[in-house]
């Protein structure tokens, strides 16, 4: 994949560049400041952009702001925001602003090959990748929601793995069950969360949004 890296830390930029090229990707650009991103994406046409969450000028949530702006202009672009810490508010804003092809992971997670490549491929396919640590905390904190409370332990585990970006086959391998079993759990999750049946809706993403918002 053609990837644009944006991070104000030299060590992180160098590490991501080495990791990406080592896994067969082409790094089309390495930027330090969020103001450089929009023109670079327009000129270089990457398949995906990796953004640090905290960057100049305010060192707060610049990565989220840039991600949301990119999503409005480039619907098919894979966007991965990396952070030192899992921040629920930032994850929720990312998903609300444009779920498909958007991800939020801790930096420590993607530094282990081939986690980064898996995440990028899933985003390029229009999927969503979310930090497992964050998803687990959010599910516990929002466990009082009636729809979430209706999920069985197996269904909750499947929902957590969906948030990690795993396919049905990937979940089946992780849980050591059949793909049909996973498909049944996923269907039950959708039904219990009362998600509308529509070809225009990404029901998997809406399932994640349900417990982030409630």
UniProtKB/TrEMBL annotation:
Residues 2-122 form the Response regulatory domain. PROSITE patterns: HTH_LUXR_2, RESPONSE_REGULATORY. Residues 144-209 form the HTH luxR-type domain. Keywords: DNA-binding, Phosphoprotein, Transcription, Transcription regulation. The keyword Nucleus does not apply. It comes from the Bacteria. One of its GO terms (biological process) is phosphorelay signal transduction system. GO terms for molecular function: DNA binding. CDD domains: LuxR_C_like, REC_NarL-like. Gene3D superfamilies: 3.40.50.2300, Winged helix-like DNA-binding domain superfamily/Winged helix DNA-binding domain. The keyword Transferase does not apply. The modification 4-aspartylphosphate is found at residue 52. This is Response regulator transcription factor.
């Amino acid at each position: 994949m053609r990837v644009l890296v944006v991070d104000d830390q030299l060590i992180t930029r160098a590490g991501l560049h080495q990791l990406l090229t080592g896994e067969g990707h082409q790094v089309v650009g390495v930027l330090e400041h969020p103001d450089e991103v929009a023109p670079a994406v327009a000129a270089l046409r990457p398949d995906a952009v990796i953004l640090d969450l905290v960057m100049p000028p305010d060192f707060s949530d610049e990565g989220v702001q840039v991600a949301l702006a990119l999503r409005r202009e480039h619907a098919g672009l894979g966007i991965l925001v990396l952070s030192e810490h899992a921040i629920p508010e930032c994850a929720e804003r990312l998903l609300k602003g444009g779920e498909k092809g958007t991800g939020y992971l801790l930096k420590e997670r993607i530094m282990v090959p081939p986690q980064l490549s898996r995440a990028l491929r899933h985003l390029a396919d229009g999927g969503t990748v979310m930090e497992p640590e964050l998803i687990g905390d959010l599910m516990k904190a929002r466990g009082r929601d009636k729809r979430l409370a209706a999920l069985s332990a197996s269904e909750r585990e499947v929902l957590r793995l969906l948030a990690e970006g795993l396919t049905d086959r990937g979940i089946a391998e992780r849980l050591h069950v059949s793909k049909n079993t996973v498909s049944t759990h996923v269907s039950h999750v959708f039904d219990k969360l009362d998600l509308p049946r529509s070809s225009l809706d990404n029901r998997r993403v809406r399932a994640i949004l349900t417990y982030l918002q409630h």
